[in-house]
Model the fold of this input.
Amino acid sequence: MKKVSFLLTTGLFIIICVAVIWQWSAFQQKNDKPSKSEGDISLIVSVKVEQDELQVKQTFDNLKMNQQYHAIIPAQAIEVNCTDAEGDTCKEEHKPKGNKMHFEYTIKSGPGLSILLNDWMIVLKDAEIKKTRIEIVDQYYKRGTWSAGIPLKGYKQTELLHYYVFEGENSTPSLYWQEKPLIKLTGQKGIDYYTTQKEQVIYKFDSLETFSDNHISVVIIDGKRAVRGNGILLAGNELTDKEFEHGLAVAFLSSKFGTDEEAEGWILEALASLVTKQVPENEKSRAMVEELEKNLTPEEIAAFVTYYSKQGHLNGNSIDGYLSSIKGMESDFFTMNSQKRPGIFPLLFTDARSVIVNGDKKEELAAVIKGGQYLFPLVPTMNALGYETTLGPDLSTLEISSANHTYYFNLKNKTFIHGGQTFGLLENPFQNLNGDLYMGKHWLNAIFKVQVSESEESITLGL
Done:
């Protein structure tokens, strides 16, 4: 009797396994793998959902033969195994044989009403992923719904399993699951909504129209929170329209920055506020917006917003590149403000013309333009002119001297001493820009009698 029972149980288990494999294979064939062009790296991720963990398999395809790839392993990944196209264990620095790399690992996921996974995938540094496909087999959370930071391409539910296929251009999309079932609704181009309400209000914001080439999955949750993942926004149903619009703009912009170039929050806030025309709450973000509005015309700001909202990928250099093209002069405004430092670095444009001092071209010198003023970096400029500069405490005093002349400046009372005489100044001739002193072009002549002449190719300083 026990033998018959064992045989029946074993047979039933085999039948269930065969059914699961057949159903999943049929679903995969129906949803063909993404096509790839020569040189384009694609990523296929298979996720098998167990009771308290996710079994993940990642395959990078179309890699460059014999190139070394450095794998960035997420902190939550355990039991990581890497093999190449021939099934051999990956060597140090992950130099694969062939054009494929396979990773298998486990992510622990305890019980709960919802799960949000950010930075859960293995990333190959310097490998630009053109297409990402995520396939989820859920044998455990059968009552809930999965969503991802890329579009849903296929879904099928059987008595045994839930199947999901997501596919898009985001190389590290977040994953989200909640126990309460969600309905997928399509909003304006680029936005999919996941909600428990069939009559959910679908928002349409004109300010977000230029983001249509990107994708955001918006999950409507209870409350007034806004939680951002990569390609996912969990938006509370108590947010105001303006708060929701701003959250969407930040989410769109955040998804444009790669893992290596993740933007600081205040930069995203500043860029989003230009899109939505809302005043930023963050003080550093407000200061950045004020700098841009002081130095760019409304038409230039509109062109700037259109540029970065349409780009598929952004970093500080690319944003500065377009900002520079608007004025025809170099700027590193966003690159400098990407660094964690107190305050903000001002918006300066560097004149591309060479600087010639007393007949010698000075590669280390360049004039910058701020608010229509031409400014020269004080210490290197005076050094080139044959002066030594000594800065006092808190930059309140300074001494500039040469073999024949000495100038002593007291910046608190706007005076300087030269040749035994005291002279008054109507304004401070020096500007402190993020810790460095600059001097206006006209002050070089007014105080130090430096002759300044300009041509299309150069700016010449001479005594």
